[in-house]
Specification:
This protein is mainly alpha-helical and 363 residues long. 52% of the residues lie in helices and 7% in strands. It contains 15 helices and ten strands. It starts with a helix and ends in a 7-residue tail after the last strand.
């Protein structure tokens, strides 16, 4: 599915599921023999109704628009602190020095868990994300090892009572205490959020740096204050979204969709990247337009599986952009030295080196 309309409909269709009853359940059972994928099938990411809503509903209020806005000052202060430290160096890596540490800080606040070694946890979360890239050779064993380490760490945090009462981890444990969740449900969803909360923002941020370097007139709009940081973040989430395909949806029964007959058990794949550049919705299409003011992008999906943390992700993108482009004037991305992530599913940067430049943005 490629158009914005069809992708939206596919993501919302009640009969297009992650793992409907029937033959596909056998495939799911085989997948679950793999540790990393087994954990993800227990998370809200790969769950269908009614289980999906049982996992999602207790957490939704904590990550609503109004609740997320309460994080703004802390995230903005952290982004500013990280950028000020970065520009003291001869050169810096915007992903490693600013993007990743901000995502760690945001995750600690959202989850209500202090990361004793955020770089190790972040690296394992990134490794585990590779489990979603199912290839002919199966899942990389490194992803399984990372999953085991993350599960063990989360279990230890819970057992030692190191969960703060103001985060969503405490809400998950309250569901366990009430008998509505299993302890494994809480562990699986905390581990899932450790990589989901890192990947979207950090990868989009890296992609955004490349896009702004390639569209300098759009960067000038930011530097001159002609577009807000939040408007810029919205457009960059459309143009630079790191995940190009949603997970395959399997027809639970024969159905008519988009003028075609989809047989029970057949799959459709919603192509988010195509939908986000559909000119019937986004006139700019393949161009970056920070002043578009259109907020219908599908970077976070839509329907029941819309990203739970999308409001926090928007905040993080906005504060990252503001901190970098107001406090690192006279610096520019060294495009020839940019390093892309080695991933089929997740499009982002591994390294985004910034160097001093003779170019000084106005303002």
């Amino acid at each position: 599915m490629f158009s914005h309309a069809l992708v939206s409909q596919a993501l919302k269709h009640p009969l297009l599921l992650q793992a409907p009853p029937g033959a596909y359940q056998e495939v799911r059972q085989k997948i679950s023999a793999n540790p990393a994928l087994d954990l993800l099938t227990r998370s809200m990411l790969l769950s269908d109704p009614p289980r999906h809503m049982r996992l999602r509903r207790p957490l939704a209020g904590s990550l609503s628009f109004s609740s997320s806005n309460g994080l703004f000052d802390r995230l903005a202060a952290k982004a500013s602190e990280l950028t000020q430290a970065a520009v003291q160096k001869p050169e810096f890596d915007a992903v490693r020095d600013i993007g990743l540490p901000l995502s760690f800080s945001g995750l600690e606040q959202i989850l209500g868990i202090d990361m004793d070694d955020p770089w190790r946890i972040g690296a394992d979360a990134q490794l585990m994300a590779n489990a979603l890239e199912i290839r002919a050779g199966g899942v990389d064993e490194d992803a399984n090892d990372a999953c085991r380490r993350l599960e063990a760490w989360v279990s230890s945090v819970i057992e030692h009572g190191a969960v703060r009462p103001n985060g969503i981890s405490a809400q998950m444990l309250a569901e366990v205490e009430a008998g509505r969740w299993l302890k494994d449900d809480a562990i699986a969803n905390i581990v899932f959020l450790l990589f989901a909360g890192q990947a979207t923002v950090v990868d989009t941020f890296g992609n955004a740096l490349v896009a702004l370097a390639r569209f300098p007139e759009q960067l000038s709009l930011l530097a001159d204050g002609k577009v807000s940081w939040f408007s810029a973040a919205e457009e960059l989430l459309r143009f630079c979204a790191p995940v190009h395909y949603a997970g395959a949806r399997i027809a639970a029964e024969d159905l008519q969709f988009g003028g075609a007959t989809i047989k029970a058990g057949q799959a459709v794949v919603p192509v988010l990247a195509s939908a986000n550049r559909d000119i019937s919705v986004f006139p700019a299409g393949d161009r970056l337009d920070l002043g578009s003011g259109i907020s219908s992008a599908l970077a976070f999906g839509t329907g029941l599986h819309a990203c739970l943390g999308q409001h926090v992700a928007r905040l993080e993108m906005a504060v990252l952009l503001e901190a970098l482009f107001t406090q690192a004037k006279g610096w520019c991305l060294d495009l020839p030295r940019v390093v892309r992530r080695h991933s089929v599913l997740f499009h982002g940067l591994q390294a985004a080196p910034f160097i001093r430049s003779a170019y000084q943005p106005s303002g």
